[in-house]
Amino acid sequence: MPQPRHGGDRLWAGRIAGCDPEAILDFSANLNPLGAPAWVKDFLGQNLHLTADYPDPNYRELRRGIGAFHHLEPAWVWPGNGAAHLLTWLGRDLASQGVVTLVTPAFGDHWRALRAFDADVKTWVLPWEQNEIHLPKVGQGLLLSNPHNPTGYLFTKTQLQALLDTWNLVVIDESFMDFLSPERSQSLISLLPQYDNLVILRSLTKFYGLAGLRLGYVLAHPDRIQQYQQWDAPWSVNGLAAALGGQLLQDREFQERTWEWLALHYTQLFQGLALIPGLEPYPSAANFILVKTTLPAPELQRRLLVNHQILIRDTVSYPELGWGYFRVAVRQTQDNQKLLTALRSERITP
Ligand SMILES: Cc1ncc(COP(=O)(O)O)c(C=O)c1O
């Protein structure tokens, strides 16, 4: 059975583990373990009638809600069926610029979107184990994620702002930025009015635990947004997600609860991993941790599935990482402890 190219493939994991997919403890998808805010279930129930009609093809309310949250006019916002969907149009825009530098190891969908338009891609491997990072200017377009998936590396706003003066188009995938509290955030959103060559991608599926509902958005200069809308299929965001999006962003209580949860549980999990012989976790700004392992990751993944019904993300699909690493999401204490106990029992030798 081929290895999945994304996290969260319970069906695959259940087959390897020989158990019900629902019984799998999933550390491979980087989703908020608090789940969606409690009110979302009622909201969806009360608004089921929206599925009978076409959504507003211009998504006026949704764009107003997202724009208001970021202090931008609706014309600066275009929503999509998750960030992955929108990456397609960002790939097209980047491919049309000329040579595109892709910061790697890169989320698989960055590759997909660029290849879909035969982009001339040059890769730049992020030296995530170093403190000093200098990204050379190669080509016209640049695509990177911040915080970076899968390493958890956080570029500073100052580092990235310097790039905006020299590149024709800079696309920053901030799909995990909302896991950082406003004091820690290095988002470039506030720079948008100054730079028409800046595009920011956001996801609402991870932070708000709505990976199956799907919702993401692009923020960029209105001319670009208009172009993306023209390229896009109509009604790509379903009516329920469209009605929900603006309200999600207003739930400050849920956001604060998530930031508090992550600060505590990240530290617990990081420290626990660092104590296991044969493992070396890398500091991460996001809700996941990249770990170097002396036992090849696919073998460790198999053992954790068969012996403990735990799914971790191996990094075989990232050529720069190969068999020597895995990635785990930060979850609640009990789950994190289960993972640490399982890893210890597998006796990974240093
Ligand atoms: C860096 C990055 N961007 C985008 C996505 C896709 O997010 P969405 O669920 O909104 O499509 C992911 C999903 O893992 C990701 O890691």
Tags for this entry?
2 domains, alpha/beta, Aspartate Aminotransferase, domain 1, 11 helices, single chain, Aspartate Aminotransferase, domain 2, 350 residues, seven-stranded mixed β-sheet, four-stranded antiparallel β-sheet, binds pyridoxal-5'-phosphate
**Which stretches are low in confidence, meaning pLDDT under 50 for 5 or more residues running?**
none
Number of helices: 11
Q: Total number of β-strand segments?
A: 13
Largest sheet: 7 strands, mixed
CATH topology of the largest domain: Aspartate Aminotransferase, domain 2
Taking all Cα atoms into account, the compactness measure Rg is 20 Å
Overall mean pLDDT stands at 96
CATH architectural name of the largest domain: 3-Layer(aba) Sandwich
* Helix-strand topology string: HEHHEHEHEEHEEEHHHEEHEEEH
What is the CATH domain class of the largest domain? Alpha Beta
State the fourth-level CATH superfamily of the largest domain. Type I PLP-dependent aspartate aminotransferase-like (Major domain)
The structure class reads alpha/beta
Enzyme class: lyase
Pfam family, one: Aminotran_1_2
Catalytic activity: O-phospho-L-threonine + H(+) = (R)-1-aminopropan-2-yl phosphate + CO2
Protein name: threonine-phosphate decarboxylase
